[in-house]
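Q: What structure does this chain adopt?
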Amino acid sequence: LWLVLSLPIVTIGASTTALYYTTAKVIRRERGYLFGEFWRSFKENLLSGVIYSVIIIAICLLFYFNFQVINKVDSTITTILFYVYWVMMYLVFSCVVYLFPVLSRFNLKRVEMVKMSLLLSMKHLPNTLMVQLWVVIGGVLIIFIPLTTCFVPALVALFCSFSLEKVFRLYMPKPEKKYDEDGNEIEEVEDRSEWYMTF
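A:
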């Protein structure tokens, strides 16, 4: 499903959002059904996913053309720009690896979604580096063994979820404490539904 629904290119954001959501909810917590949850998340996040995808593609093309230009000119300024662009590309990459998982789990305005993704990537750098490592490994596998496209994205989403969900849970509302008639706190078993709810 991820592969098929990513083929139009501009829908890759919505497809990736649905992939993460389904992996986190169905694969890890065994709630719901794969196809149903994937399709529901895809439809809900289609517009935002397309908008983000178009923006990301435009940014990538801009970086590509800028690198083409500075590679043709040998000067101190272009050397500085070369490193500046690499730093900017890393920041974009850091933001993107959080963006679609954040989209799958939180209800925010689009600009706030980007801000949150960037801030989380910087604040939780060890988790960010782990997620980026899985994404790079997955990308390399797909490039050199195209057949792995059928299952590597789901594995990458699964492995990334172990790092990302630790971060997300820090920003989710804590359930209210409940007390019995004697004023003793009631210990409740974790509500598994909260694990994948959007806020």
